[in-house]
Write a structure and sequence with these properties.
six-stranded mixed sheet; disordered C terminus; Rossmann fold; disordered N terminus; 262 residues; alpha/beta; four-stranded antiparallel sheet; 10 helices
Amino acid sequence: MNDARADAGTAISVRGIQKSFKDLHVLRGVDLEVHKGSIFALLGSNGAGKTTLVRILSTLSKADAGTATVHGFDVASEPLDVRRSISLTGQFAAVDEILTGRENLVLVGKLRHLPDPGAVADALLARFRLTDAGGRRAGAYSGGLRRRLDIAMSLVGEPEVIYLDEPTTGLDPEARIEVWNVVKELADAGRTVLLTTQYLDEAEQLADRIAILHEGRIIANGTLAELKQLLPAAKVEYVEKQPTLEEIFLALIGPSSERSAA
């Protein structure tokens, strides 16, 4: 891996990415840039194209047009280098329920050809507060434990860029907070996190920058403070009410057909 090829501050660069499935235009020219060591939230409704973009950035799918680089490597022409630089955690945990937590981690370490996968597994169990659960079958884990194990598995081999595709889908509030804490720790350790979510509070809590993907296009991109400036100034009577991210999101994407018919 040649780190010198990557821009000093850029982990992911996307320019004009398009993707269609027959007559369905999913991505219609997406542009975005993710800085190293940051948490970047890609926010959008179901069907907005979030997972499709992640699949392209993971080299699992090819774009119809446009370019993208990850850690300085082109996703189309240098897919092996991209894969060595990333990890991907999808909406559903990829753990093997028959294996113990530690065995899951050791398995990934062996697949990545690490010299001492057992030591790597033990270190990750400790890092994610899973040591006590490491000897139990993953099938007996709670949703929060399973998701923490899933993210730990994605860190085997110390990838520079981590994709978390709706990582808290289906989790209860307590488990969601556990995952949020893990994501913050990853960024504190210098990892770059691309987080896709449909939960507005999740983006508000975690992200350094937020992009809103709607109908295949990025319609807003900035910090939470910058996005708040897109709406009229707060009306002050007795207290000042700042717009929430939910209000910003709904104002930008406009009324859906269902809301219009209501």
